[in-house]
Amino acid sequence: MRQLSRILCSAALVVAMTAACGGSATTPTQQSQPAVFPLTITRTGGIAGFQDVLVVAGDGLVSVTRKGQAPRRCQLTRTALSRLTTAASLVPWSRITAANTHHSFPDDMVTAVQSPAGGPVRLEDPHAGGEGQVFHELLNDLHGDPTASRMCTPV
Fold it and tell me: Considering its fold, how many domains does the chain have in total?
């Protein structure tokens, strides 16, 4: 009985301290950052007439839609998911104004990424940063035969 009293007193103390300190064990930066997933990566236009759409969930599941092909799904490798998550977290979504995602010329290719946190941002925009190269890599990796992908395994 004495041990139960100590456990209950300890639990009450933890609850009281948590409430007094803001009510959450997470840090303020975790609370203020909006979710970046699902990411939508698009590539349209160009001489080849691309119409690619990748929707990437936070768990690494990718929905791939390409002109003239049946939609498919795949699972990112751990390395690819880590790189993509890092790149998406480095984009200053809150400071980005929506980019013009329409092509200017018949052969102008537009590659953009959008998140619930903001966008779309064209990948050549400096706001996408150097880490944004992984978005291009994923598009190119999933362009060919699904079984040849190095970044995403078919599901």
Answer: 2
Q: Compute the radius of gyration of the chain from its Cα atoms.
A: 21
Strands 39-45 and 109-115, bridge-based pairing: antiparallel
Write the pLDDT tens digit of every residue in 19-67.
444 444 433 344 455 699 999 999 998 888 899 999 999 999 999 999 9
Q: Are residues 23 and 65 in the same domain?
A: no
Burial (CB < 10 A; 0-12, 13-18, 19+), residue 47, is exposed
Q: pTM of the entire structure? A: 0.74
CA distances from 104 to 44, 46, 66, 67, 100 (A): 12, 10, 21, 20, 10
- 74 lies in which domain range? 33-154
Burial (CB count <10 Å: 0-12, 13-18, 19+), residue 9: exposed
